[in-house]
Amino acid sequence: MFTMPGQPRIGHRVIELDEVDSTNRYAAGERVRLYLPHGTAVLAHAQTHGRGQRGRTWSTQRGLDLAVSFILLPRAFPAAHQFGLAKAAALAVHDVVVGAIERSGRTVPEVCIKWPNDVLVDGDKVAGILIANELQGALLSAAIVGIGLNVNSSGWPPDMRATSLLQKTGVRHEVREVFSELAARMEHWWGCLIAHADEVAQAYRARLWVRGRFAAFRLDGAPVMLRPLDVDNNGRLLAEDEAGRVGAFGLERLRFDRG
To answer: What CA–CA distance (Å, rounded) separates 16 from 30?
Structure first.
């Protein structure tokens, strides 16, 4: 376990809310108002208007799922490498999901990270991550890492392709225990990012959904088949087309065809 000298551990302080529109929005406001320290977590029993990628909403069912935002205050962290934090957060969630399934005694299915940072179990979404970064010149001065994890919920329409820990393990989970494990894994991967960023990049690449396989995308709105290879420091997906050409694509141009 890596620790940052002089910095408190992630999750050392928890602001627990019964209901909030968005843990990220609340964390941002309180950080400015109260100067909350590094590692503070904002945990909500219900989130009504959380945001996901591309402006989508991410809500949680009261008392059933995990909605949390972690406040991180890096020291001399290059802004050019800020997507490394998204990789570290996705790896932390991945660890929690795999650990829960392993402890249930069930065979672990395919658990992958869908670019940029959703976590899928057998192709169904179990968690999403949204990060708000603050830059100061060439450095990342602050980050709020918002994570929504489906813990005990169920009953989504089939076209949503969603799942939960309950559905994949067959047992209910204590949300507070899931939070504690997530905070510990965040601390681990945050420490790795600071001390050994290459380790984070390699672990993320190894867990990248459909890596090395052609999949349907939409590039500038047009259908295209691409083979994902990696994700660079700027968060762009490195992918090969059917002609063998490799390009780097950002979220503003590229998305998976299935959403």
So the answer is: 13
Q: What is the DSSP string of 197-231?
A: HHHHHHHHHHTBTTTTS-EEEEETTEEEEEEEEEE
Domains (range + CATH), the chain: 14-206 (3.30.930.10), 215-256 (2.30.30)
Taking each helix axis as running N to C, give the angle between helix 83-103 and helix 197-206, from 0 to 180 degrees, rounded to the nearest 10. Answer: 60
In 3D space, the residue among 207, 217, 206 whose CA is nearest the CA of residue 239 turns out to be 217
- Give residues with Cβ within 8 angstroms of 257, minimum separation 6: 215, 216, 217, 218, 223
Closest CA to 11 of 180, 129, 148: 180
> Which band of pLDDT confidence, cut at 50, 70 and 90, is reported for residue 155?
confident
What number is the average pLDDT over the span 135-153? 96
Contact 85, 73 (CB under 8 A): no
The reported pLDDT for the residue numbered 259 is 54
The SS3 of residue 91 is helix
Q: How far is CA 82 from CA 74, 87, 141, 161, 191, in A?
A: 10, 9, 10, 29, 14
- Rounded CA separation 201/190 (Å): 12
pLDDT digits (tens, 9 = 90+) for 165-205: 999 999 999 999 999 999 999 999 999 999 999 999 999 99
pLDDT of residue 49: 73
Place of tokens 């990342």: 140
Structure tokens at 19: 């209901």
Whether 191 and 3 have beta carbons less than 8 Å apart is answered as: yes
